[in-house]
Each structure stands twice: as structure tokens, then as C-alpha cells.
Amino acid sequence: MNVLAICAHPDDAEILCGGTLAKYAARGDKVTIAISTNGEVGSPTLSKPEIAETRRQEAKAAADLIGADLIWLGYPDEFLFDTEKTRLDFIEAMRASGAEVVLTHWPDDLYNPDHTLTGRIANDVAIMTTVPNIVTASPVLKKIPIVYFVDSMAGIGFQPDEYVDITDYIDTKKRMLAAHESQVGDWLQDQYGSNAMEMVEVTSRYRGIQCGVRYAEGFIRAKAYPRNIVGTLLP
């Protein structure tokens, strides 16, 4: 199966669904991580071009840990908008990856507008990926991908209706996050006083308690015609 995680910033996929991506990859699925913005404001010291390139390299290193492909959309950090170009780029990311499953931000995650818009655009355009008259570089998909919304930052306001047991992949999730050294050891602590690794540990443990395993990640499937399914496509 082809799985695409399309998230707002470098490190979002690792924080919010890294264990699930590792689990998909381990069972032989093709995993792609698409990042909508370039992370260019995520440093208290480096210039925009410097930190953007650093974050691109960190994202590639994290993806490489599970053999995932990386799609770098490169929109300005904190200034993502819903435009025709943005929609076409998201459609192309889904087509280029052959997405059958899309993991993206919950549109009600109010942590950051890039999160909100990335989730909303990804869900909105999924139905457009099979339309021949909407032309992008890659061929149209044969089937509309199923969209799952990932957890909110720190789990605030998010009530999962599906869980993935990531107990065997929590260490991989942490290694993927650790690849984002400029964020884990610098920006998030400086800006928010936040220990990202601790947040990942606590949130994953909390979701695990909710569903009866050691560590888990939570999801809500986008329930919309004609994209309803029986069962689940989560691993």
C-alpha cells in the first residue's frame, strides 16, 4: 500500500504519526512524507535560508531512517494559504506518491495555522486526485485516497476513534524525531519551553493507556462520501 503523510512543518510527521509510519514501512508499505512549509522561521539564531536548508536535511535524515521518500513543497513557514497553486501542489504530492492512504493534520488543531490549513487542504483536495481535467505532472489516481487525521499537538481537544499500537516502534519514532536536532534541542525549547521528546513519550503513553497497549498513536478518519470504507487501513 502507498501511504502519504502530508504535514505542515519538518518534525510534525515524526511527532504526530512517526510510529505509525515506521510500522507501515516495516510491513513493506511504501511511505512518503510531504512537508508543506520550509520551516524557515524555526530558529532563534539562524537566518531563514540557513534554517530552511538545515530543516530540509533533517527531514531527509528522518525519512531515511524508515526508507521513506520525502516531498518538500517549500511554502513559507507560517504563511501557508489555500490558493489554486497550493491545491495543485497537494494534489501532485498525492498523485506522485500514489497515495492510497493520507495522514494529515486534524483541521481543528489550533496550535498553528499551518497545521490547520495543511489538514484542511489535504482533505479538500483528496477527492480531486482522480479528476482527469485537473492536470498535474503525475497521472491521476485510480481511487480517491482515504484520509486519516493525526493527533493534535499535545493531544489537546482530540478524541481518537482509531488507534495504532506503536509499542514496537516507539524507539524508531524517537530516533526520527531526534534527527530534527535544530528543533528538539533548540527552537521548541527556546520558543515554548517544550521538551519535544518528553511530549512524544507522554502523549504516546497516554494514547496507549486509552486503548490498552504500552504506546499508541490516535487517529480520526475523515468520514465523507464517497470515501467511506469498512474496517481500517491503519496498520
TrEMBL record:
GO terms for molecular function: hydrolase activity, acting on carbon-nitrogen (but not peptide) bonds, in linear amides. Coiled coil: none annotated. It holds the Pfam family PIG-L. This is PIG-L family deacetylase.
